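Page 42, continued from yesterday. The earlier attempt failed because a stray header line got pasted into the input along with the sequence. Redoing it now with the clean sequence only.
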Amino acid sequence: MRTNLCFALFSALSSALCLPQPAAAASQARVAVAAVDNAAAERDGRHDFDFLIGSWHVHHRRLPHALAHSTEWYAFDGTCRFQTVLDFANMDENVLDMPSKRVHGVTVRFYNRTTHEWSIYWATDKLGDLALPATVGKFDEHGIGRFYDHETFEGKPIVVRYTWTHPTPNAPHWEQAFSSDGGKTWETNWTSDFTR
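This time it went through. Structure tokens are written below.
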């Protein structure tokens, strides 16, 4: 009887003071613990691109015309030199020996510690400024990186996707794909295979 009275008084006082009820407090505690667990489970991806550190020979394959149902690829070689910058960024310098010209390019990537995502920017000596918007994404638990942005291609809106895999330490692979239907279907139009 005394226990029930004490509980009733506590409940009434809690309501009057807007304090959480015992059951509500327990529920809030579970939510708080779950939030901490989720934050702890979110990987720190600042070193996800470390597999690229160093110098590479790169074999590129590219479609001459994207989103045109083309099946004829052309190939060319290049080089890539990758380095980390501070503790939240990296960059690589590229030389692309395309059939008609040599192109110099640079990729800069920034890691956001709040969203756990990378923002990727690309520039070439053709224009001399960063291509926007950034391509944004992250690596999953299997080591596959997927990065997306929305652009306009030949006057039509498309989604761009970069995919990074590295099945072995010395054989990273990159792909670029376009989707003209909001991501339902994709056409890969550029692949790059890296060797030391």
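Notes: Residues 1-37 have pLDDT under 50 and may be disordered.
Reminder to self: strip header lines before submitting.
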